[in-house]
Structures are given as structure tokens and as C-alpha cells.
Amino acid sequence: MSEDFTDVTPRNVAPVDLALLQRLNTIGVISYVLHLLVAVAAMVPGAQFGTTLLVVALVIDWTQRDSAEGTWHASHFRYRIRTVVTAGALYLVTLPLWALLLLPGMIAWAIISVWFLYRIATGFIAMNKGQEIHA
């Protein structure tokens, strides 16, 4: 019982680069906002921004993801990239529905858009809490 408990210095803890985390957080906010703009616009008829903003967000995520390795931000880069790629694939797969019948195409794309909005909102909330996001 002669241990000294007054020394509260953490042991075996890697130093945290606060400037890097702040930069990654800023990049994450910009990317999530771009994704949210596209997701919300997809839900409003006639308000589509096209794929330009989504491509910009995807390029930001793709080029900056290596700098996030080893941090909790890395999960958010993977999450956003996977979400965009999956949504893009779903839109392409359901594209023939628009050619066959208008209503099924509209319903399919509305469901995909709601899913996309949900994924982006969930990721944004987790990032603001400082939590990793799991696929």
C-alpha cells in the first residue's frame, strides 16, 4: 500500500496532434455540408444541384483520407466515400425504371435519397460528438 497515486501522468498514450484533428474536423464539416446540400436537394423536386457538389465532396474525401489514418476521422472518410459510391450504384441500377415507368423510378430514387440523407445526417452527428462511425 505504498503506491503513489498522485502521479496522474498517462502512460503509453500516443501524443495527439490537435492541429491535425482540427484540420480533419474542418474538412469533415465541409464534406458533410456538401453531402447534406445534395441529399436535401434530392428530396425537393426541381432543386437538384446535379452531381457537381457531390463530386467535389468525393474528391475532398478521397484526397484527404490518407491524412486521417490513425484517427477517428478515418472512419468518417471511409463512411462518406462508401455512402456516395453505394448511392451512385443504386441510382444507376434503378435508372431503367425511369425509362420503363415514371412512378417506379420516382419511388426508387426517393427511397435511395432518404437513405442517403439518413446516412449523411447520422455520420455528421457522430462526427460532431467526436465518435467513430461504423459502416
Task: Report on the architecture of this protein.
By secondary structure, the protein is mainly α. The chain has one domain. It is 70% helix and 0% strand. The protein has 4 helices and no strands. α2 packs antiparallel against α3 (73-100). The chain is elongated and about 80 Å long. The mean pLDDT is 84.
Short descriptors:
mainly alpha; single chain
Summarize the structure.
With 135 residues, the chain is mainly alpha-helical. Helix 2 runs antiparallel to helix 3.
Order of helices and strands: HHHH
Structural class: mainly alpha
Principal-axis shape equals elongated
Could you tell me the number of beta strands? 0
% residues in beta strands: under 5%
The number of domains: 1
Q: Residue-averaged pLDDT, rounded? A: 84
**Euclidean distance between termini CA atoms:** 47 Å
Q: Portion of residues in helices?
A: 55-70%
The helix count comes to: 4
| Regions with little confidence, pLDDT below 50 for 5+ residues | none
Radius of gyration, Cα only, in angstroms?
Answer: 20 Å
Major β-sheet profile = none
List the helices and strands and how they pair.
Layout: H1 18-43, H2 52-64, H3 73-100, H4 102-128
Helix pairs in contact: 1-2, 1-3, 1-4, 2-3, 3-4
